[in-house]
């Protein structure tokens, strides 16, 4: 009989105990025990606000977003918007929109590779009856010389407000 490493026993989270006093013939006669395999429930993205900012948002970016969202005419409170950090194992872009309850999405900066090709351009787009805006840069990375980009972002947010 070949030896089995302990690591192999744990490989599929199944360990079988065989008492020393049973012979191989008795083991062959034992009824098969069906091992229930617990499937991990697919984790759905959690978004509970009407507006969601999607991206790897650092503290400096978050501070700028708070400032932007508190300025008239936008004025969004903490219950109105949230930040969602996507992982590399996200569902497809359209599935993400279907599975989340927000009505307005702002995608900022680098997004999961699986979403490339599905993301809208930097213009506001209506997908799955939701307003979606993609801005390829972080607001905190814009310089004063890039005032037109800052204005494009601000104007898009104002347009999404309506």
Structural account:
The protein has a 5-stranded mixed β-sheet with strand order 2-1-3-5-4, with helices on one face. The model is unreliable at 13-18 and 30-41 (pLDDT under 50). It has helices at residues 6-10, 24-29, 59-69, 93-99, 147-161; strands at 51-54, 81-84, 104-108, 125-127, 130-135. Helix content is 27%, strand content 14%. It has a domain at 51-161. By secondary structure, the protein is an alpha/beta fold.
Tags for this entry?
single chain; 162 residues; alpha/beta; 5-stranded mixed β-sheet
Shape: globular
Strand residues, percent: 5-15%
Low-confidence stretches: 13-18, 30-41
Helix content: 25-40%
Following the backbone from N to C, one meets helices and strands in this order, namely HHEHEHEEEH
How many E-type strands? 5
Q: Measured on Cα atoms, how large is the radius of gyration?
A: 25 Å
First and last CA, distance: 73 Å
Structural class: alpha/beta
Strand order of the largest sheet: 2-1-3-5-4
Largest sheet features: 5 strands, mixed
Mean pLDDT: 80
**How many alpha or pi helices?**
5
Sequence-ordered SSE layout with sheet pairings:
Elements: H1 6-10, H2 24-29, E1 51-54, H3 59-69, E2 81-84, H4 93-99, E3 104-108, E4 125-127, E5 130-135, H5 147-161
Parallel strand pairs: 1-2, 1-3, 3-5
Antiparallel strand pairs: 4-5
Quick overview of this protein structure:
This protein is of the alpha/beta class. It has a domain at 51-161. The protein contains five helices and five strands, in the order ααβαβαβββα.
